[in-house]
Amino acid sequence: NLDPKHRDRIAFLRICSGKFERNTFYHNVREGKKMRFSNPTTFMARSKSLIEEAYPGDVVGLYDSGNFKIGDTLTEGKDFMFRGIPSFSPELFKELVNKDPMKSKQLEKGIQQLTDEGVAQLFVKEVGNTRIVGVVGELQFDVIQYRLEHEYGASCEFRSLNFHKACWLTSDDPAKLKEFCRLKYSEIVLDKDGNYVFLAPSAWMLRLEKENNPEIEFHLTSEFKTSTEMA
User: What is the rounded CA–CA span in Å between residue 120 and residue 110?
Assistant: First the structure.
């Protein structure tokens, strides 16, 4: 959202190999579809200009209508992905509360776009659809609240929650994982990709759950979800 008067977004793409050309179709590996860019741009201070081609090391700005996520890979046709930027466990957790029900759509769109940018992490409880925002520093909540109000016209507040860490869950035994999530439903949330995450109330509780559930792995980053190559 470089210009608040226009709802455009810019995704920044680093060229890793080959040559990027304007109006050429490229393959978005995650979405499995072809994309063409008629207005790729480059930036210098406050100015931006249209480019026809770019080379390894260049960073190109692409107008984004919501198609991109951090870590996406564009190729000329091959299905492979670079390892993405991992999500680390936040240090602070707060519930996102809508203060104006008439602006629910604006709030939903705003928090989704801000978390897509990597400003914070969004977790959603399956039961009750409670939205929990996780950040590293307290100031991030103020930034999110300000941007939601001034860029999206949404009014919200944050309510503090006492969680120690967010742990992404995996297991070779799907039944065990499902049962754990059922028993711990009050601390289980979904991340933006629909993965199960355990919000540990304390360091002691996290250690206890690890000891009692050896068949379940508790990850403090989401990097396990990415792979350098796709089938």
Answer: 12
